[in-house]
Amino acid sequence: MKTIKFFSGQELPVELHKVRIVQKLFLKPIEERFEAIEEGGYNTFLLNTKDIFLDMLTDSGTNAMSDNQVSSMLQADDAYAGSQSFYRMESALQEVFNKKLLLPVHQGRAAENIISQVFIKEGDVIPMNYHFTTTKEHMEINGGKVLEIYTDEALKIKSDFLFKGNIDIQKLRDVIAEYGKDRVAFIRMEASTNLIGGQPFSIQNMREVREIADEHGLMVVLDASLIGENAYFIKQREEEFKDASIKEILHTMTGLSELVYFSSRKVSSTRGGGICTDDNDLFLKMRDLVPLYEGFLTYGGMSVREIEAMAVGLYETTDETVINQSPSFIKFAVEKLDSLGIPVVMPAGALGCHVDAKDFLSHVPQEEYPAGALAAALFIVSGCRGMERGTISSVRDEHGNDILADVELLRLAFPRRVFTLSQTEYLIDRVNWLYQNRELVGGLKFVDEPPVLRFFMGRLAPTSDWPQKLIAKFKEDFGESL
Ligand SMILES: *Cc1c(COP(=O)(O)O)cnc(C)c1O
Predict the structure, then answer these.
(1) Is the entire prediction scored with pTM above 0.85?
(2) Which residues line the pocket of ligand 1, CB cutoff 6 A?
(3) Which CATH architecture best describes the domain 2-59+322-478?
(4) Domain 67-318 -> CATH class
(5) Helix ranges restricted to H, 73-168
């Protein structure tokens, strides 16, 4: 991807790849989309892709592979133990992350399971820039408590702070002073903090964290699932690294941590994951859990074909024109939505575009799930599927009341190299139409609410006949068939 200045004065992101395999999509009429969301209980997780036009639920396992990744799968070496595919992946990791030792696992959360079991004991705390859902669960199952010590800018929707993923250094000192270093299992830094808008941290911040970790003999664990984008943002936004290669930046990041783990559903557009380190003692502490939970040490629950594609995908992560595709499209969408007066998380981050539903639907009380309502309404008017990241994704307290989320976001993910700019324009146009007609959108209520992780399988219903009114207005503006 390269942002190019046009004769017209516009600057647009232009793809440095061509599309050679395509998948047919359908844009169904609005009545059929309405039926689909009714059937899915107003929960976008319960939609079927046959009814979806642009699937922007997540970037996990939905990215496009390169021709070199696909062709590498043909040379996969099937073997339970000692597969050549594994050694190719190990070399890729040594080159890209500059870590000698690798434990393969079937996906990111499997790495979290192993790290949490080995390094967290009952009563420990784990300070971090922000949690990720599966990370937090694994840490809590093992008796740990997650402490989020993000900067004050992190939860502001609109900010010009370029590193909202930074750890607040003073808060880190306070945590260590309060709990004592023996109760701090390790410090976790998540690259491009997923749940707060794909926001990066800076190398300067990581160096400061490293210094404190060294003072107290603590380990720094890097969640590298979205490391490529974080490295790209460092190159864009941190003066010291403006002329550095992406590989140099990656090495600087991994060099400041003892353990690096990742989900390759994101970082290399395949499946799988891994844990890397240079420290043989740490490696040996974790090693025996791999055959127990994942598979033998040379496949870790992955197919050899996935391992081959992962190795190639990792090399491609060092190519700036590859990793900047999704951030460039996100920036394009975020800046356009912002110029239309639509509230979005700024600055633009990795992973997706995040619409502030609390502001967008300010007439819908948080108890009626504005982010969920916005996700359902956008699907009805566009066929685009986003993900609710607000109170539906939260839980209830012991009295049965909703614990209201810090932010109500509709996340519109941009899987890497999947959508075109005209599709992005379509999305922006329909979000804008919805914004102009936002007073027509009402709230949601649960009709079937599972006790755990309710956002996955829960079913909801509109609090009034607002979807019908929205559809009537849509037809007035666009005619019958769209
Ligand atoms: C997706 C993700 C994970 C979990 O990875 P899976 O492969 O989905 O299990 C962990 N951390 C971060 C930051 C992620 O984005």
Answers:
(1) yes
(2) 60, 107-109, 132, 134-135, 190, 194, 223, 225-226, 263, 265-266, 273
(3) Alpha-Beta Complex (3.90)
(4) alpha beta
(5) 84-97, 108-119, 133-141
